[in-house]
Every structure is written in structure tokens, then in C-alpha cells.
Amino acid sequence: VSYLIASSLEEALVSLKESSGRARVVAGATDLFLQELPAIFIDLSRLPELTRIDCRDGIFSVGAAVTHTEAAGDVRVKENAAALSEASSLIGSPQVRNIATVGGNVVNAAPAADAAVALVALGARAVLIDLEGKMREEAVENLYAGYNRSLIDSSSEILIRLLFDQCALGEGSAFIRFAARNSLSLPMVNAAARVKVSKGRLEKVRLVAAPVKPAPTRLQNAEAMLTGKKAGEIKWSEIEAAAAADAEVRGSLLRCSEQYRRHLVGVLSARVVKKAVERAMNGEVIPGE
Ligand SMILES: Cc1cc2nc3c(=O)[nH]c(=O)nc-3n(C[C@H](O)[C@H](O)[C@H](O)COP(=O)(O)OP(=O)(O)OC[C@H]3O[C@@H](n4cnc5c(N)ncnc54)[C@H](O)[C@@H]3O)c2cc1C
User: Which residue among 13, 41, 107, 114 has the greatest number of ligand 1 atoms within 8 angstroms of its CB, and so is best to mutate?
Assistant: First the structure.
């Protein structure tokens, strides 16, 4: 096995091309080292363009090799994209978060990967480069080929960064999850939301829960029920029921039954929207039902 630490994006691309499919890019390796190992690893974790968080003209750019510790701790992310900060802060344990990356979380394509769920709620787009140097942009939710299968082929394409609009005035986002333990435990269910509130009314809603399908999935019936409603008049039990009905869940012997998971999808969806709305309304507490 060879392990190359790339010192530039060009070097990583040339090495990938020369390895004719025998190499894969790697960042923290917290997922890849548990899978079938390639003959050659190309480590991206020291590339400047992949390890930066920028926020310019209201658009966040989070490098694919930014670690969860960095994403969780960045004050700009905390204030203007709380869903990602909260998701990254709950992944694994401090040791995992110190090396595992936001990009790896997306490309590994686990259906309930915490940061990926937050990114879909935030409306993030992935910026990718292929072996010929051609760049493309794709919405994160469109990168899934099935359970744990990404449309990004990490032997021939590199995810450079994730882009999304920061939450402006009147917008808020949030992420929550339910797991057996606070650390080192994959979620039974997680949920993230981004909302825009104007004159007390929900103007835009993106609500994602997982695992409800192979990809982090927007719960569109619940979103439609929320859109246009006055924040103080939302019947949260109806939102819970709509979200639970939207979800196509499977039970898991390791985590929880199908029935319990469906119940959690409803409860967490309503809670995460409420939290995002309260943030959008500057901390105003929304009455519950
Ligand atoms: C003990 C433990 C606990 C965990 N807990 C959680 C948890 O609570 N929640 C959660 O969501 N996940 C959890 N994970 C999973 C994992 O840590 C995350 O998915 C992490 O974000 C993966 O990032 P990484 O940098 O380690 O990816 P890697 O393992 O380096 O890569 C994962 C995949 O992405 C590809 N890849 C990486 N970077 C790029 C790139 N820039 N371009 C193209 N392809 C790329 C690799 O080839 C590989 O296919 C846990 C893992 C462990 C070991």
C-alpha cells in the first residue's frame, strides 16, 4: 500500500490520473479505513484550498477537508449556519472530530451522516473537479446513488468545497439528533431545518430528516404545511404527524424499530423547525401546542 500526502491539488489530480483507478483520495480516513482499502491513498488533508472556511458576500465556502472540530468551532458558522456547527459538534467523539472531515461525511454517503443532513437543509452545493481539471457544481442531495453509495467516484473526482448562503436577517437554522449515547453513537434519527421568517410568517422552509431514504431527504409535505403559517399559530402535533407520514423508514436491529424511528422523525422534525424559527425571530419563544 502506498500513501501519498498531496501538497497541491494539481499533484493530487496527476497522481489520481497516473494510478488508473487504483488510488482513492482520503482525508481523515475514519470511514475509508473501515472499508476495502485501495492500493494507493492520496491524502488531501493538507491542501490549502480544501482546508479553509470563507464567508464572502453572504456565501459560505467550507473546504471539503475542514474537520468537524473546525466547522463546529468557527464563530461565523455558529452564528450564520448553526445547523452545520451543531451537526459537526455531535459527530463521534473529540478524537474523531479532530481528523474526520465535512467532505468525507458527504462522500461516504451514509444516509444519516450528520453534517450531510445539515448541509442539505442549508441548501449546500458541492464543487467538484475531475481528472481533466473540469469543475462542476451539484446540490448535495443529488450526490447519492443508494445506501452508502455516492455518485462521487473518489478514484476520479475530488470534492473541493461546499457552498451555501449564510442565514441572513430573518433566517435561522438548527440541527438535532437522538442517539443511544451522547458520544460515539450513530443517530437513530437526526433532523435539520432552515427557515426564513417574514413579518412573523414562515416564508421558506427546508426540513430534512434521516435516515428516511438512502439520501438525506426533505420532508416536502411537512414543509408545505409550514410554509405561509404564522409562527405562533403552528399546530406542532400536526407537523409531527405530517413529517412521520412523509418518512420511509427502516428498522435496525442495532438502533431501533421502524415504528420508534417513525415516531422520532415526527418529534425531531417539529422540534428542529421550532428551534430554527426561534433563531430566525431573534430568540423569541414560539408557543407550543
Ligand atoms: C468511532 C466513529 C464514530 C463516528 N461517529 C459518527 C457520527 O456520530 N456521525 C456521523 O455522521 N459520522 C460518524 N462517523 C463517520 C465518519 O467519522 C464521518 O463520516 C467523517 O466525516 C468522514 O470523514 P473522513 O475525513 O474521515 O473521511 P474518509 O474516511 O477520509 O473518506 C470517506 C470517503 O470519502 C472520500 N473522500 C474524502 N474526502 C474526499 C474529497 N475531498 N473528494 C472526494 N472524495 C473524498 C474517501 O475516498 C472515502 O470514500 C464516525 C466514525 C467513527 C470511526
Answer: 107
Does 36 or 73 have the greater pLDDT score?
A: 73
SS (H, E, C) the chain: CEEEECCCHHHHHHHHHHCCCCEEEECCCCCHHHCCCCCEEEECCCCHHHCCEEEECCEEEEECCCEHHHHHHCHHHHHHCHHHHHHHHHCCCHHHHHHCEHHHHHHCCCCCCHHHHHHHHHCCEEEEEECCCCEEEEEHHHCEEECCEECCCCCCEEEEEEEEECCCCCEEEEEEEECCCCCCCCCCEEEEEEEEEECCEEEEEEEEEECCCCCCEECHHHHHHHCCCEHHHCCHHHHHHHHHHHCCCCCCCCCCCHHHHHHHHHHHHHHHHHHHHHHHCCCCCCCCC
CA 131 to mean position of chain CA atoms: 26
Answer whether residue 253 shows pLDDT above 90.
no
User: Can you tell me which atom of ligand 1 is nearest the CA of 93?
Assistant: 3
Q: For the chain, give the mean pLDDT.
A: 95
Q: Which residues of 121-145 are buried (b: 16+ CB within 10 A; e: fewer)?
A: bbbbbbbbbeeeeeeeeeebbebbe
Pocket of ligand 1 (CB under 6 A): 24-32, 44, 64-65, 91-92, 96, 100-101, 103-105, 107-108, 113-114, 152, 154, 158-159, 184, 186
pTM: 0.97
Query: How close is the Cα of 289 to the center of ligand 1, in Å?
Result: 39
Q: Radius of gyration of the chain from Cα atoms?
A: 19
